Amino acid sequence: GFSPSGELFFCPAEQVAERAAIALGAEKLIFLASAGALVDARRKRIVENLPVQIAEQFVRRLDARDAQKNAASAGPDESFVSALRSATAAVRGGVRRAHLLNRFVDGALVMEVFHRDGVGTMVCGDVYEGIRPARAADMPGIAALLEPLEKAGVVLFRERSAIEADLANWVIVERDGAVLGCAALKRYAEAPDIVELGPLAVSPKYRSSGKGNALLSYMERVALAAGARRMMILSTVSFEWFLERGFREGTRNDMPPSRAAAYSTGRGSKIFFKQLNSPRAIDSEDVLRL
């Protein structure tokens, strides 16, 4: 670009896009970057959703590497890194989502915009994006999630009318109008420090994308806000999943009296409890989980 006096300015396209998106209050910013990508080494797959806090940590590591000028340390393509920096800054500036796409993939833009899952990496400002209180219109989606689990005996059957009457205690994960996950909390008058989580269900297609983690930590925050200090869950499967997230196996004697009286050993459910300490502790877990 040039100033009115003819002075030449070097304005990287990524920064221009970042500033323009912030000034316009854009909902979405899309970068067509190089072939670079962020890959989860453990899962051996491209990182699809990147909370802005994690993106900032990654950018700081790259900046520290560049400051040391360690040429032996191979890193992401510079075009991708530049786009990631601007995407992170844009989200911090108020843009809701920033997408990084490989410009060498035919149809990448169309797939990202019109396909629910997209094909690139999305930097988002809210770890709990798409999680909201359930409404009556969500009942078909909730039922579709629960039905296969009920048939498999993973969760107890719940009358749909009972769920609808109790919707104030349910939340869902939604994307583009589809219910991807759901969860509910139950409180006990005789044990106000304990809240029961159940069921927690996520569509099989999204179980490896962090939706279950986000839903769990969201419900932990709700429980803390309601005055609970322990979260209880009964499960016939996924024992390791809960243990890895801070739950510990308990006994019937640890349950609220009314719940203990209704507890049946016939299903082989194990009882797990998690101590809820503070929102700050949940923040720390979010960084590790998501």
UniProtKB/TrEMBL annotation:
<dbReference type="InterPro" id="IPR000182">
    <property type="entry name" value="GNAT_dom"/>
</dbReference>
<keyword id="KW-0808">Transferase</keyword>
<comment type="pathway">
    <text>Amino-acid biosynthesis; L-arginine biosynthesis.</text>
</comment>
<protein>
    <recommendedName>
        <fullName>N-acetyltransferase domain-containing protein</fullName>
    </recommendedName>
</protein>
<feature type="domain" description="N-acetyltransferase">
    <location>
        <begin position="129"/>
        <end position="268"/>
    </location>
</feature>
<dbReference type="GO" id="GO:0006526">
    <property type="term" value="P:L-arginine biosynthetic process"/>
</dbReference>
<dbReference type="InterPro" id="IPR010167">
    <property type="entry name" value="NH2A_AcTrfase"/>
</dbReference>
<dbReference type="Pfam" id="PF00583">
    <property type="entry name" value="Acetyltransf_1"/>
</dbReference>
<dbReference type="GO" id="GO:0004042">
    <property type="term" value="F:L-glutamate N-acetyltransferase activity"/>
</dbReference>
<dbReference type="InterPro" id="IPR016181">
    <property type="entry name" value="Acyl_CoA_acyltransferase"/>
</dbReference>
<dbReference type="GO" id="GO:0005737">
    <property type="term" value="C:cytoplasm"/>
</dbReference>
<keyword id="KW-0012">Acyltransferase</keyword>
<dbReference type="InterPro" id="IPR036393">
    <property type="entry name" value="AceGlu_kinase-like_sf"/>
</dbReference>
